[in-house]
Amino acid sequence: MNIECPYCEKLVDYNFGNPLMETDHWIVFLAPNQSNLATCVVALKREHSTLSGLENDEWQDFILLLEKMEKAVRESFDATLFNWGCLMNTFYLEDTLAPHLHWHFIPRYNHPVEFAGHIFEDPHFGYMRPRPPKKISEDVRNKIADKIREFF
Fold first, then answer.
1. What is the tens place of the pLDDT at every residue in 86-145?
2. Given this model, what pLDDT does residue 35 score?
3. If we measure between CA atoms, which residue out of 62, 99, 100, 117 comes closest to residue 84?
4. Which of 150, 66, 64 lies closest to 115, judged by CA?
5. 27, 31, 50, 75 — which has fewest CB within 10 A?
6. Is 29 inside a domain boundary?
């Protein structure tokens, strides 16, 4: 996938994950931690650090993207619900990169999902508790991304 925007090179430094798709205003990355199957990061394609100040067309684009992502992951993996969070806390710790507006998209499952030889479970369904990273290969990550793209 060829993602073209002025900040893509900069976004690589944030380690949001593997590029999955893009819209006019947002880039979707498959997050490094797949402890919740199909977790993504959605980053704004311009330099900005807060939700206030988003342009109307960026909000409208985000709403369309939200609908597409939820449909794609529900169709791909039978997700039960979706958590969206705009958590910028770590950007304000010492020795971190400048803040960049992004959302965390975390599918939640009330059942185990078997995919590409792995069982993905959500033992804290109904609660928000940190989960350790799930170790999967780059091949499995690519299969997750390809499955999601089937429904975009």
1. 876 655 556 666 667 889 999 999 999 999 999 999 999 999 888 888 989 999 999 999
2. 94
3. 62
4. 150
5. 50
6. yes
In a domain, 3, yes or no: no
Return the C-alpha torsion angle 67, 98, 87, 53, nearest 10.
-60
Residue 2 forms part of a structural domain: no
Helix axes 138-149, 56-77, angle to 10 degrees: 110
End-to-end CA distance of the chain: 14
Q: Closest by alpha carbon to 105, among 54, 31, 50, 46?
A: 31
SS3 category, 41: strand
Please write the tens of the pLDDT for every residue from 43-91.
Answer: 998 888 778 889 999 999 999 999 999 999 999 999 999 999 987 665 5
- Here the CATH number for the domain that contains residue 89 is 3.30.428.10
| Residue-range definition of the domain harbouring residue 91 | 8-149
Count the domains in the chain: 1
Q: What is the CA radius of gyration of the chain?
A: 15
| Residue 124 in domain | yes
The mean pLDDT of the chain is 86
